[in-house]
Amino acid sequence: MAKRKRINTVIWLGLIVSALVFYGICFITVIHPLEDQLHSTEQQVTMFETRYDALVSQTEDIDEDLSYVALQIPNRKSPDNVLSTFHTAASNANVVIESISSIGEVMEEESAQVRNTSYSIEVSGDKLINVNLFLGSLLESERLITIDSISVNQREDSVSLSLTVTTYFSER
């Protein structure tokens, strides 16, 4: 009987050791690679979530920029408003508008929602800083204005500025 208990104990110990060896082999060949793959997948998910959040925030910024630009584009041409903007910028900057001429409306496509009109402006002032203030006022105006060309001529007693600007409007 003692021999039988010993044999049973050896068999049980053998089974336990075999089970531990089998578990170790399965862990090394199956479970450990799956854990590595899970960790790698979690890192990829985190990376994609970060990229997604960045794209969403960029989309929000673009939407804000588009709404801001839409506010700067009036529903009609209104050249009187444009001229008023030019004169206000000139008086605030202490410069004199020598001439303003409309170059005309540019229509790239008949179906275009946003149209533009270009103006040629000649300005003179006593100091270069005043001309810079005038340009800054144009760029910060309520209306979307782009400067297409610019020419500055500085003499000892005055500064002259010639520029071509484009204003935009929509016909909704």
UniProtKB/TrEMBL annotation:
Membrane among the record's keywords?
Answer: yes
| Matches recorded under InterPro entries | PilO, Transl_elong_EF1B/ribsomal_bS6
Sorted alphabetically, the Gene Ontology BP terms of this entry are: type IV pilus assembly; type IV pilus-dependent motility
Name the source's superkingdom. Answer: Bacteria
| Any Pfam family | PilO
Keywords, sorted A to Z: Membrane, Transmembrane, Transmembrane helix
**Residue ranges of the TM segments:** 12-34
Entry keyword Transmembrane: yes
Q: What is this protein called?
A: Pilus assembly protein, PilO
